[in-house]
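[job 0417] fold request received: Protein Ves
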Amino acid sequence: MKLQALGPADFLKMPWKNGQGVTTELAVARRSGEDGFDWRISTATVAVPGPFSVFAGIDRSLAIVRGGTLTLNVEGRPDVTLTTRTAPYTFGGELAVSSTPALETDGVPIDDFNVMTRRDGWQHSLTQHRLEGDALTWTLPVTADALALLYCAYGQVRVTFHDGRTLTVAAGNALRIDEVGAGANVCELHADATSADVFLTTLARR
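[job 0417] inference complete; emitting structure tokens
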């Protein structure tokens, strides 16, 4: 199992494809072509209403990290309002989507969490959890080329693996896990203090 701690110095900030905002790229598998990736995990800030960039052939999952609520108007679907307590919302990147934020604090944008995978080659899952008290068991993928990423949004998370290794991930940092291997695909997550908020992503080839 290969573990890689990632922090702000490892992340890359870039403008949205449509120029309406800024994305912080946490991890990515780059490729040539218009969109330039097979998969990407990122955060972004949203402060004003507006359209999302279009990503044809990409499956997307979106969740709220902090800062308020975000109402999405998605082509062909009922409107949905996302909060820090709602499950991540999944949709096709080719759909026309616009968003309307409701900020908790004037002038402080919403932070959201995004996972995108190219539909013809990759699939992903995204969950968000508040850790309080009991440990959370996280099952990691073991198929070829699969990987996982933990992002700590609040607090501090202690990650314990089957082989006894323990790592701590602070708020604003991430842990990338590659080469899990059969029979070694479970770890335990504990909040180091009263509570912690984590986003857990797995990616695998189709």
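[job 0417] notes: The longest strand covers residues 37-46. Residues 80 and 161 are 37 Å apart (CA to CA).
[job 0417] exit 0
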